[in-house]
Write a structure and sequence with these properties.
The strands form six sheets. Strands 5-4-3-6-7-8-16 form a seven-stranded parallel β-sheet, sandwiched between helices. Strand 3, helix 5 (108-119) and strand 4 (123-128) form a beta-alpha-beta unit. Helix 5 runs parallel beside helix 6 (137-148), helix 7 (161-170) runs parallel beside helix 9 (192-212) and helix 13 packs across helix 15 (416-430). It has two domains: 4-66, no CATH class; 80-279 and 319-361 and 397-417, 3-Layer(aba) Sandwich (Rossmann fold). The protein starts with 7 loop residues before the first strand and ends in an 11-residue tail after the last helix. It is of the alpha/beta class. Mean pLDDT is 82; it is low at 1-75 and 436-441. It has helices spanning 24-34, 38-66, 69-74, 80-89, 108-119, 137-148, 161-170, 187-190, 192-212, 248-267, 289-299, 321-333, 366-377, 402-408, 416-430; strands at 8-13, 16-20, 99-103, 123-128, 152-155, 175-178, 218-224, 271-276, 278-280, 303-308, 312-313, 315-316, 318-320, 340-341, 344-345, 351-356, 364-365, 383-387.
């Protein structure tokens, strides 16, 4: 029997197909007889040419069948009920509201942004591929939370051009909040292609869809503070040159900034890049250090605290999730409009980059963060202090957020102690752990 790729899908009735496989053993006998003469060889060549032309016509027709809603409905995407859910979720319920496609909607930041937009009456549709980077169970719980608030999340990949085209055909989105990405630093050592797939190819696929829309949406997307690279300057400012990246993740984000600049310049897409620093809070990512430290301390498991050369403690610019969400929403509200249509630029469009960090205090060292967690949990941590070896993402100096303050009205209000206590309270509730030792606040 020939392999599947040699088989043909033949329509047997509307929305149904049957598999036709050529009878190879019969064809082989025919070929042996027919190729006995030169004349028959030429005849068979003509037949093969004709068959190829017919096959290409069939493939084109088959592709049109695959786009038919009845076929997609069988897989849960693109059918009538699916379209109703998408349109209902995208419905705008306030005056001057916006309709937003949120990618990575079941992720940490994506969940909070989608909820904030929906709560104020905007239309929101989410997309997430529910990958297993840190296990999909938390993502699916976030999805349930969003759906309880009327936000529909499509289970799909942003590299799926057909899916994006269907979404844009169903809803004329005014904005895109692009938060889908492969995150993490150490993960890139063993899984480099996942970063290119999500952070570069996925970004281009999404921008291609936005550029070709009849009414181009404004795009806000997640860059990263890691694009500044290994840098001793303090504080980081958006006008500073980005040094050589310290990780593959940072490289893909730096590449993303170049790509978005190109699409803005060539096609008139309004684009805003947000350089996030260390975002933390309830419903956070389990791979983040504050999350894993909370888990280990509460379970009595030792934690490893790293130091860089000369025994200098690692430090981070921690920013609470609620403050980041305000920056994201303000970026959408002030994004301006794209100026192109169907890939044709009609005028210049805004291109902006903002730091979204914390202005309340200087970067906090990891040992200081541990002490706050100890106080919040009412438990002492078992610490192993280790000097860093190999490539790591080094300390972040203080970040300059004056541009975001001026243009977005961005002013963080949550200090690390308050934010971590809120996270600990959520953590103990979510994982059903006893909170008898929790210091109330």
């Amino acid at each position: 029997m020939p392999p599947l790729e040699e088989a043909l899908l033949v329509p047997s009735s509307p929305g149904r197909f049957k598999i036709y496989r050529p009878q190879s053993h019969i064809m082989n006998r025919a070929f042996h007889r027919c190729f006995a003469s030169t004349t028959m060889v030429l005849l068979w060549a003509l037949i093969l040419i004709a068959f190829t032309a017919s096959y290409l016509t069939f493939v084109d027709t088959g592709n049109r069948y695959l786009h038919h809603s009845s076929f997609w409905d069988h897989g849960g995407i693109g059918g009538i009920q699916w379209e109703k859910k998408v349109r209902s979720s995208a419905q705008i319920l306030r005056a001057d509201g916006i309709s937003v496609l949120v990618t990575g909607a079941a992720g940490f930041i994506g969940t909070h942004v989608a909820l904030a937009l929906k709560t104020r009456g905007d239309g929101v549709v989410g997309v997430d591929n529910f990958d297993n980077y840190y296990g999909p169970s938390l993502k699916r719980t976030r999805r349930a939370l969003l759906e309880a608030h009327g936000v529909f999340i499509v289970d799909g990949d942003i590299n799926d051009q057909r899916l994006l085209a269907k979404l844009f055909d169903t809803v004329a989105f005014t904005h895109v909040m692009h938060l889908a990405a492969q995150v993490g630093v150490r993960y890139g050592v063993d899984n480099p292609y996942s970063y290119v797939h999500s952070n570069v190819a996925g970004l281009v696929t999404l921008l291609e869809q936005c550029k070709c829309a009849g009414r181009q949406p404004a795009v806000v997307w997640a860059s990263s503070g890691s694009v500044y690279g290994v840098n001793n300057k303090a504080p980081f400012s958006e006008s500073d040159p980005a040094n050589p990246p310290a990780s593959l993740y940072a490289s893909t984000k730096k590449t993303g900034e170049e790509i978005t600049h190109t699409y803005n310049r060539l096609y008139g897409l309004s684009i805003t890049g947000l350089r996030f620093f260390t975002v933390y809070g309830p419903w956070g990512r389990p791979d983040m250090v504050y999350f894993s430290f909370t888990r280990n301390i509460s379970e009595g498991t030792p934690i490893t605290v790293y130091r860089v050369k000369d025994r200098v403690d690692l430090a981070r610019d921690f920013i609470y999730i609620d403050d980041v969400v305000k920056g994201c929403v303000a970026s959408l509200d002030t994004s301006g409009k794209s100026t192109g249509s169907g890939g044709k630029k009609k005028g210049s469009a805004p291109y902006r980059i903002f730091n979204l960090g914390n202005s309340i205090s200087s970067p906090v060292t990891v040992p200081a963060m541990v002490r706050i967690l100890e106080d919040s949990l009412g438990m002492k941590a078992k610490m192993d202090v280790t000097d860093v070896t190999g490539n790591v993402d080094f300390s972040f100096p203080h970040v300059n957020i004056s541009l975001a303050q001026k243009e977005l009205g961005y002013n963080p209000t949550t200090d690390l102690q308050s934010g971590l206590r809120k996270f600990v309270k959520w953590y103990l509730w979510y994982y059903g752990k006893p909170s008898a030792h929790l210091n109330q606040f």
